[in-house]
Amino acid sequence: MSKNATTPSSPPAAAGMDGILAERMAEGGGALCNDENGLCLGSRGDIDTSQSGCYTAIAKLASQLDNTVDGQGTKNNNNNGEMPLVTIQTEKAALLVKEYGGRTVVFRVPTEVNVNGQQCGSELVMNGELDNLNEGV
């Protein structure tokens, strides 16, 4: 490779994530982010922000669950620092709730979406989209 050769620059991570979110929002998805008190800091798409405090409460309660193999929980049950992912499925959508650094993030994925002209269930979309969103962060 010569000194004068240029390599194509990759798009900023935020642009990739914004593109994925915009695509999913058009299909009925949504996302929101709360502070540690349940106050909605921002949202996009089709998601009920009036329930933002409930999402934060769910994430906090889930972090208190015993995650040890033998069931002999410690005072701090979540001693590995990993916060649990809570999935709530309804007839219309699946909600993914997780705490990251004191912020609760919620994704709403419609039960049925149209991907490349084909109907897909939320399980297929969630598995691929969360990986794509994590790569963009």
From TrEMBL:
This is Late endosomal/lysosomal adaptor and MAPK and MTOR activator 5. It holds the Pfam family LAMTOR5. It comes from the Eukaryota. Belongs to the LAMTOR5 family. The keyword Cytoplasm applies. InterPro entries: LAMTOR5 (IPR024135). Keywords: Cytoplasm, Lysosome. It is found in: Cytoplasm; Lysosome. GO terms for biological process: cellular response to amino acid stimulus; positive regulation of TORC1 signaling. It comes from Thalassiosira pseudonana. The keyword Cytoplasm applies. One of its GO terms (cellular component) is lysosome.
